[in-house]
Every structure is written in C-alpha cells, then in structure tokens.
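Changelog entry

Holo records now carry the ligand SMILES as an explicit input line rather than a separate metadata file. Below, a converted record for flavin-adenine dinucleotide, shown in the new format.
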Amino acid sequence: MDSLFFKEEHVMIQDMVKDFAKTMVEPVARELDEREMFPKDLVSQMGKLGLMGIMVPEQYGGSGLDMTAFATAIIELGRADASVAITMAAHNSLGTIPLLLFGNEDQKKNYLPMLASGETLGAFGLTEPDAGSDAGSTKTKAVRQGNEYIVNGGKIFITNAGEAGLLSFTSQVVEDGDSIGIAAFIIPTDTPGLEIGKKEKKMGWKASDTRQLYFKDMKIPAEAMLGTPESGFKTFMKTLASGRISIGALSIGTALGAYEKALKYSKERYAFNRPIHEFQSISFKLSDMATKIEASKLLVYHAAWLKDQGRSINKEAAMAKLFASETAMDVTREAIQIHGGYGYVKDYDVERYFRDAKILEIGEGTSEIQRMIISREILKDVQL
Ligand SMILES: Cc1cc2nc3c(=O)[nH]c(=O)nc-3n(C[C@H](O)[C@H](O)[C@H](O)COP(=O)(O)OP(=O)(O)OC[C@H]3O[C@@H](n4cnc5c(N)ncnc54)[C@H](O)[C@@H]3O)c2cc1C
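Structure line, unchanged by the conversion:
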C-alpha cells in the first residue's frame, strides 16, 4: 500500500530508517524505557543521517524532504521505540515548523542549520497549566518595553524541554497596556529568566524528556517574535495540523510494533496442542489489528500527501490522528491479550507499547478535540 504514495526517495528513506531502527534503536529500547534515559547518542546519529532536519530546505542544511518522508521515518522509528520517535518527531514538527512557516530570513539563517544538523534540539511550548485544549486561554504575557519584551508565565508538559537548545513558545503580546494577540517567539534556552523544571514521571514515553517551563521577567529582543501577533494563533494552529500527521504516523509505528510481536507470538505459543493462532478468536483479533493499521496508513499518508500538495489538511489530519491513535490503543491492548499473562510483564515488549500508546490519544489535541475539528469541517459544508 505504501507504494501508492511513495516516490523513489520515500522508499530510500524507509529502507534507511528501518535499518537504523532495527540495528541501533530496537536493541536499546527496553533499557531506555526502564532507566528513563534520554537517547542522546541516538539523536546525534539521527542528525548525521539527516533525520533531524528532514523537511528543512537544503539551503539551510536540511534534507529538503516532504511530509510523506517525515511520516515514513516516524513510522519506522515508532515501530522500534516510541520515545526515540517522539524525540525526533517533536523536534522536526513542533520545534522546527513554526520557524519554517513563519520565521523571517534572518531567523531561518540563524537557527535552521543548527536544528537541521541535530546539534541543537528544538521544543515548542504551547500548553499551560490552565490552557491545554483551550490554547486560546494562554496566560503567559510578553509586555513590550522599547525594543524588548518582558515575559512572565510558564508552560507545562513540554517535550524535549530539558535537552533543547532552542524553544518556540506562544504568549499574549501586550503593547501600551493592551493585549494585541497571541504570538510565537523563538529563543535560546539559556536565556536568563527561563527556568526549566524537573523531568516528569510518565506512564509511557519514558525516555522522552517532558518538563515544565517558567518565564520569570525574561527579557527577549523584539526580533525573537515569529511572524506577527495577528498571525500568532494561526502559526501554532498550522504547526499543530502538521503535528497531527506526525502523531498519526507514530500511532501507526506503535501499533505495527505491537502487532508484529503478537503475530510472531501467536505462532510460537502453544495451548491445547496447537499454536494459538489456530484459534479463530486469536486469528480474528490479528485480522482486526492488521485492518485497522492498514486503514490508519491510508489516512495518514493521504493527509501527508495533501500537505505535500499544499492543500488544506484540517479535516484529514484530524481524522488521521484520531483514527490512528485509537487504533494504536486498540492494537496494543489486543497484543497484550494475545500474549496472555506474559503480555503483562516487562519481559515482553508489548507492555511498553501499550503504555506508550495512551498519550497518542491526548497529545497534540485529544480525541475529543479531533472530533470537534472534524465535525466543524463536515458541518460547514452542509447546504440546506
Ligand atoms: C507526554 C506529553 C507530551 C506533551 N508535549 C507537549 C509539547 O511538546 N508542547 C505542548 O505545548 N504541549 C505538550 N503536551 C500537552 C498536550 O498537548 C495537552 O496535554 C493536551 O493538548 C490536552 O490538554 P490538557 O492536558 O490541558 O487537557 P484539558 O484540555 O484540560 O482536557 C481535559 C479533558 O477535557 C476534554 N475537553 C477539553 N475541552 C473540550 C471540549 N471543548 N469539548 C470536549 N472535550 C473537551 C479533553 O478532551 C480531555 O478529555 C504534552 C503532553 C504530554 C502528556
């Protein structure tokens, strides 16, 4: 099915990442999870392979590839380890796309090469303690003083935050005492006034770095703004739409990894003198898992293809993220069921895939929010 959407370069990237994931990521995935260890070495290797600037144009040191290539790479990494995959995915989408979409030439020249090489990791701060799904309720304030902004507030649950060298974040912009909109800014993470909180203890994605950020009278130059306050909300809505395709892809990777392990186990495990896949209730589970994964691939690759054509992706990216993330949850749950008691202990990797799957229904817009986006899109087309 992949070939429906693939050009030669997509086949090449798939082969390369599959090989990298098999030889370098899979062997360490369990240890990274158990020790909650950020995969620093793997990030640097992914930088050398061109995966940390996969969609950055070649003139800024990136690989100049498209969304389909990005989705393919995430699927292959996610199949081996979701934490490694989200580290790379968040860097390329949340950490880099605001700059690609809305940065001016100086900002692009300054920051894109270091992000694309993987030398510097990117993070994106949108969520706040009182503004998650309701991102428009952002409380962080950047108050203009001459040629600077003084920023106060904070962000929560920020992926890569403790390892990143660059942070894009959203904030209300206050000028002459009035809030004039929400804008995105980009800053180095050693900016005085930026405090980085402790690493969150999570159910899954344990090797991924997630932290709270605090802005305390943080002074930043006016040139740190990406775009304008008027375009700010659009900046991060567009960033999130692309991010949804990447979470859809990670959902496919997570589901595929668990499905393949369950398929193999169903042939190895005997009960009542036969391999368990000979029981229809097991083989039908495998059928449902494979079908949902195939449907998720069609939705995710279609949304990526639309994005690569420069077409609108609001509805399609939301559908892809919704269906693929719920598939990841269903498939990882059934993979444990197929493993029986062995699925519940850490010696078999399906337990990790199950824990890694739940966040896919929450991050970058919960399932409820995806349904809201889809319903708005389908209802606006109805003519009575
Ligand atoms: C591991 C992890 C990594 C993350 N990484 C990042 C990151 O890098 N950058 C970043 O900015 N954020 C990040 N997030 C935050 C994530 O995007 C938010 O947690 C998510 O958008 C939900 O927001 P919330 O947690 O405030 O939940 P809430 O918005 O409080 O939602 C609570 C519940 O209410 C429901 N709900 C809310 N509004 C509605 C509505 N209008 N209609 C129906 N139901 C509704 C939700 O669906 C959910 O079930 C991360 C979160 C986690 C856990």
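Spot-checked after migration. The mean pLDDT is 96. The longest helix spans residues 232-268.
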